[in-house]
Structures are given as structure tokens and as C-alpha cells.
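User: ok so my PI wants both of these folded by tonight, can you help

Assistant: No problem, let's get them done. Here's the first:
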Amino acid sequence: MSARMKYGEKTGPVGGVTPPIPTATSSSGSLYGDGKLLGGNAPPPDVESSDAVVRNPQEVDGQDAEAKLGLFLDFKGVEKPEPIRGEYGGTDSGPRRYEYEKLNSDLYAPPGTDSGSVPNAKWPLGLSHNRPGYKGRSGWARQQNTASLPAAKQMAGVDMKLAPNAYRELHWHTASEWALVLKGCVRVAAINDESQTFTDDLCEGDVWFFPSGMPHSIQAFDRGVEFLLVFDSGDFDEDGTFLITEMFARTPREVLSKNFQADVDAFKNVPDKELYIFKGTPQPRDIEKQNATAPGGFLAGNSSYTHHWSRQRPHEVPGGSVKVLDPTTFPIASGFSAALVTIQPGAMREMHWHTSSDEWDYFLQGSGRATVYAAPSAGRTFDFTAGDVGYIPRDDAHYVENTGTEDLIFLEVLQAPKFTDISVAQWLALTPRQTIKDHLKLPDSLLDKLPKEKTLIKKGNPDLLALAHGGKAY
């Protein structure tokens, strides 16, 4: 029985090849044709011998609706989607992988409001190279940076898993590191240049931050841990981390002996290459046993490198909830501002943009979409699912709509001293009414209901095809 996987894809004759081709037992034929095949020399082909017609194309509910309605098209209900929106597009008879199109319906059959060219705003971490740790199934890491998402110039991300009691070895970076614990629990430790130490235990939903150049260690507890790292440089590369093992391996033994005032034999067991991620000795549950007494004391309060964000209650609004963490409440994390957003089915993160930073997103659960508007007249819609990174340049307007049947949970990260945005609805509400009417020709019934406070999330009809059936979007 074959172990090879089968994917939904277009099969049959394509590009002048009709598979399966005969199995050859020896070499025959020529790699090149002759001059008789050049245009003007070759006889004309029989143009009735081949066609690009798709017979009995399958369409999903809402696909025949007006293109500018931009309804979300759920292609999972058909075997072979087609890139059609109302009166636009056409069938696809060429090489295809149906699963890609089902995951990215707004790219394959874009809303009629999409226009022009917008840099790619999406990278699935499932397409990133997954680097394993040291032998013994100690863990792994995969990353997103400008190599995979060129527009993401301001931030990069790493998803890392440590097996029970495994370490991310002692290290430091040229970039600052902000982290959200996704699953499990972990102990982190660090020192700073003021001879101060820090140790803390974190679990799912908690955050740590280490400034650039700050040496630190990360060790999972006995049930393992997975965490998301965000760095303040789009060019950050996880493979370019400064490692304690490599520092010792690249330093002459004579220098090590002199620096540590120890016999040279003390260094004979130092690893000759990095450990990266490796299994270690279980840490004591009593954290006080690992709190080193430092000349500068122990870091706490506003100087703490951690924040137990899991214990912060979210701000609840119709359609979902939001909670924010920025230097206002986590002072040490200078420049990092984040919001953890939960959106109920049919609802959306309201139309907005950020004035001080690009936006780096990570989708933790559910599915959604966002249209990115870039000046002066470009717009493109992207679909996101769990494990995807989203990236939206500063000042580009956008929203995030829940397109699934479960809650959508995602993280918004800014490089800003405070989490702020410009709400499109609030902007219109606080602008002279006549000005808005002269520009957009909006009715008074709409303008009367505009909120003067930011709502953050707009509730919506879970039936995303309601407009196609005479219903409402909200």
C-alpha cells in the first residue's frame, strides 16, 4: 500500500503532456526539436483539438452575488472552487491545488472592491522550516522574518516548543524579545548590566520581555511549553542568536582559564558546538532555590521582565473582547504594545489604522479575513487561520472579520509606546456632519448612530451570506 499522500488537485492533460507517460526501458529521442517547429515553418494546429472549458463548474452560495458586496465565500463546500464573483472572473482549467484555494478564497475569488497591488500581508508558519533541537526530541522552532514576508520590516516572529524540562540554551540577541506563552509553563531567568538578577515562572497567557543584549535562559516545566516570540527587527534570524556554548567553544582555552581563574582542565567537557534546544535537569519547584543573590538586588515591580497577563480580565464589548498590554502597565517592555483580541462569529475588529507603527498579527484560533487599504487606491483581501502571521504597514486601513463558526482569537503587536489606533467610525462621528455628507453622501440615519467612543469590535450576523438572501450584515 502506498504511503504517499493524496491532495486535491487538477489532473489530466496539461501543457502538452498527457499523463501517465509510458515507462521507458532505455534512453531514446532528442532533447531538442528542429527548425520545422518554429512559427511560420510549422503547419497550423487543429484549434478544435483542445479546450479550456470547465464543464459543470461548481459554485458556492453567494458566489453569484454582486461582486462589490464582497461576501465571504466558503469554498470548503465544493470539491473544485472557481474564481468567480458575480459577473467577474471565470473558470479555472489549469494546474491547481484545491486546498490552497479553499484556504484563500478572497485571493482566489477576490471581492469586487479589491484593486491594485498591495504587498503580501500573510505568512503561514506551517510553511516555515521547522528547526529541531538537540537529539532526544527536545523541541523545535520555526520563524517568520523578511525572508518569508518581505513587507514585515519592523518585526519578526518565532514559534518555539520545549519538551518537558528542556532549555532554550543561555543566549542573547541583537533585537529585543517579547514573548507570549501559548501552552504549558516555563521558568525564565536573566541578569542586566546593573548587576541585578531576575527569575520568574510563567504559564499560558503570560508575557516576558528581554531587551537586546540581555542574557537569559528559558526552561520548560515537566509538561513542556510552547511560546511565541516577537522581535523588534524584521530581519531577525533565530539562527543568528548569541549562544553561551558557542562563545566558550570559540574562545581560546588559555583565555578561559585566565578569565575564570580556573585550571584549563575545567573546560575539557565544554560542548564543541551549540546545544540550541536540549533536555535538562528538572528545576526545583521552589523558585527561591534558583534566585541568585546579586550585588544590585532582585528585579521586581516596574523593573520586572515578566507580566502575568493571563490574570488580566479583558474589556468586553458586544461582539468580543480585548485586553491591552503596553508600557503603561509593563514599563520594561519599551516600545512593545499588544492587544489580545477575541471576536465572536460574524463580528469584526472595527475598521482602523495605526499612526505610530506597523501591525504584526498572530492568529491563535479560528479563521478570519482582512482587507488592507494602501494609498491612494489599492486594496487586497487576505484570509487567515490559526498559525498564520499577518503584517499591515503603518497607516494602512484595515479590519479583521471572523469568517468561521467559532471565536477568532489573534494577537496584535505594535512597536509603539502605547497601544493606539484611529477608528474610522469615531473619525466620522467627530467630523462636522456636512463635511462627511459632502464627501461620502451618507444618509442622516447612518450618521445619527455613529459612536463618539471607539467600539474596538463591531458585532455582526454570523450568517456571512445574509446580504445575498435579503438579510443584514449586522
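One down. Here's the second:
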Amino acid sequence: MSSHPDLTTFRALSFDCYGTLIDWESGLASDLSPLISLLPPSHPWHANPLLAVQRFNDHSEHLWLTQPKLAYDANLRESFRLLAQEQQGVIAAADLNLKSGVLQQLDGSVGDGPGRWPAFADTVDGLRRLGRHYRLVILSNVNEANITRAVAGPLAGARFDAVYTAEAIGSYKPSHENFRYLFAGVKREFGVDHEKGELLHVARSLTADHVPAKEIGLRSVWIARGGDKPEGYGTGGDYEKLKAEGKLAFEWKFQTIGEFADEVERQFAAKKESRKGE
């Protein structure tokens, strides 16, 4: 018997991209390293760059709410500017070369990062296998130019039937508007009706994806990637707190896209075998 509910009844999967398919925390940490290098050796970001990523994400999410029409590359550059501004007080005066060094990142690598940050090792193969059974759709907070580069680069080899971005929608997840746009898009393009239970959402972020999924009644899969333990929460949200508050309703949990694809293949194979015996 399966340890998971039936996954064979869905016709389409919608995916969060960054954090789920693309390792955005590691990619962003790398892009933040020029700033971290200017900080005193005792600064906690040296030992744990994820702290810098989390603070950066605080700024980014605030901008999602206050400037929902700001393109994601501009959001990233502004978040970097705010992060660097916060740290200027602890950067040694002799190293205060932000204009010629670190702040150049504002116009370049940070804003362009989502187009080149690496996919997780399990992502592309997992998507290929999932694509044998479902339509695959991206629902991302990123901008059009970056997602185009990501699909052609780190995600090359995987098939996507549609890509919906915050730039096209005009707002950022967790806004329900982004999910309404998704529902309308998959019904128009593929005849997939979420109200009939034909769409399944697949995501790492609890706050941006799974909380609104529960609010609007969208069934979902949590790709935890370590986020089910406090040391792995990262930017995805506090799992225990959100669970205690009753804000989560995902029905499946896997650590990786690869593990999710394994279970999907197992269930479809078992269903095929059972039909042979009928």
C-alpha cells in the first residue's frame, strides 16, 4: 500500500521555481559574498551566510508587498542596496569601497542571478520523469528575462508547458491573484480545472506557496529540502510555527523532486499492473 494519497488523478503540476527547482539560497549566498567579505571576521555572516540570505529575503518580501509591480530583478537590486546600507556601519572605513566594488552587484550579478543560479541535482531528471505523466507549469515570483534564461540554462532538458511570472501577473505570491492567474491559464491552455482536483501545486516555500494554497483550497506537495527541521528552515518559513497555527494543509512531503518523481512512477506502475489483473 502507498504511504501517500493517490497522485495518479492529477493532470497538471504547478511548480514554484526558486528554492524548489533552483537552489536560490546557495546561489544568492554566492552573490552576497563580496559584501560579506567586507565585514569584520567576527561577523556571524562569515560562519553562516544563510543569515545574510534570510535578511536579504526580509527586504525582498517587504518589497513584494509594498511594490508589487516592481520587476524581480529590480527587487533584488533594491534588496541588495538595503542590505549593504544596513551593514555600512560595521564595515571598516578602509574597506568602504562599496561604490567601486560591492555596489556594482546592484546593477549586475544579483539582479541577473535567477537566470544562472544552479538547479538542484535531482531537478532536471525528476522533471523529465514527471513530464511523462503531467503537464508541467512554473508559477514564479521571478521576472520574464530571468526565467527565460533559467529554463534555457540550469533547467535545460526539462519540458515546461507554461510559465507564469509575477512580472506578467503584476503581483507576487503569496497573493491569491497569482494563483487565480494560474487557474485561468491552465484551464484556458490545457483544459485543466483546479476545481475538479486536476491541478497539484509543488513547492518548497511554506509562506509563499503552501499557506496561500490552503487558503484557496489548492492541493499541494511540499518539497521540504531540509525545511522540516529548524536548522533547514532558511527562507521557506517556520514549519512548526505555521503547522501549530493551522496554516498548512499539504498532503504529501518529499525532500526532493527526485523522491517525488520516484513515488509518482511507483504509483502509475502499480495502477497499470492492477488494470492488467482486472
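The longest strand covers residues 135-140. The chain has twelve helices and six strands. Good luck tonight!
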